[in-house]
Amino acid sequence: xxxxxxxxxxxxxxxxxxxxxxxxxxxxxxxxxxxxxxxxxxxxxxxxxxxxxxxxxxxxxxxxxxxxxxxxxxxxxxxxxxxxxxxxxxxxxxxxxxxxxxxxxxxxxxxxxxxxxxxxxxxxxxxxxxxxxxxxxxxxxxxxxxxxx
Length: 149
Description:
This protein is α+β, with helices and mostly antiparallel strands.
């Protein structure tokens, strides 16, 4: 009979241990902020031109990328844990995009006069969008250079 009592006591102790482990996990899970231990999401900001700005026919779009390293697709993936990707550039809701993979400004030449919208979408190596921003600006009329007499 004493062996039955020992088995019951062992089951009780085991149940208490499992309960204690569960409660400890629950306390830790609620005490640690959700963002702690997770990398911040990649973001892109368009620095210039500003919304509604008048620009020349050669537009230089300056941007800032945070929490992502811009890399050409031809470069092997690095194993340092930093998110890598590129920028999808779309002009005026065109059906096509081009890929920009450096921190240098994006230059678009020969834009016709009028209002234009450019979308910059930050994308991972899998081409899935991570963040996107758009800017709408106006390309001014070009003034012809007067002929010399």
